[in-house]
Amino acid sequence: MNVLIVGGGLTGTFLASQLVSEGQNVTVVEKNDAAAARLGQALPGVRVVTGDGDDPVVLEQAGIRRADTVVAATGEDEDNLVVCILARQEFGVRRTLARVNNPKNEWLFTPEMGVDAWVSQAHVMADLLRRQMQPAG
C-alpha cells in the first residue's frame, strides 16, 4: 500500500515508522526544512518531501497520484481539511484520514469534505473516560 502522510511532527513520524515497519510504502510531506532533514535521517525507508502539503504541486511531487491513502496529520485543522479535500477532489485518492486538533472542529471532517475517517485526541480520551466510569457488570 502507498501511504502519503502530510505532517512530519510526532504523530506523522510515529505513524510513518509503524507503517514502514509493516512493509508499506510511505512518503511524508513536511514543510519545515530542518524537520524534514531530521525525518529523512531518522526514518530509513521513508521518502520525505519538503514543502507545504496544502500545495497541489508539492502533493504531486510527493506522489499523491499513486497514493492509496492520504493521512493529514499536521497540527492545524485547516491544513488537514485542505489536504483531504485536495486528495479526494483533485487527485481522486480512495481513502483519507485526518487528525483533528480542536474538538470544536470535528463537525467539519465529513465525507462530503473529503474525509473518510478522523481522530481527535480529546474525543478518544472522552470515550475512554466514559467507558472507565461505567460500573463493571
Fold and architecture overview:
The protein is α/β, with parallel strands linked by helices and 137 residues long. It has one domain (2-133): NAD(P)-binding Rossmann-like Domain (Rossmann fold, 3-Layer(aba) Sandwich), CATH 3.40.50.720. The chain has five helices and six strands, in the order E-H-E-H-E-H-E-H-E-E-H. It has helices spanning 10-21, 33-42, 56-61, 77-90, 121-133, and strands at residues 2-6, 25-30, 46-50, 69-72, 95-100, 117-120.
Structural features:
Rossmann fold; alpha/beta; 40% helix; 5 helices; 137 residues; 6-stranded parallel beta sheet; single chain
Can I get a quick summary?
By secondary structure, the chain is α/β, with parallel strands linked by helices.
Q: Please state roughly what percent of the residues sit in beta strands, choosing from under 5%, 5-15%, 15-25%, 25-35%, 35-45% or over 45%.
A: 15-25%
Based on the coordinates given, report the CATH architecture: 3-Layer(aba) Sandwich
Q: Number of helical segments?
A: 5
Q: What's the overall geometry?
A: globular
What is the CATH C level class, in words? Alpha Beta
Strand-helix topology:
Elements: E1 2-6, H1 10-21, E2 25-30, H2 33-42, E3 46-50, H3 56-61, E4 69-72, H4 77-90, E5 95-100, E6 117-120, H5 121-133
Parallel strand pairs: 1-2, 1-4, 2-3, 4-5, 5-6
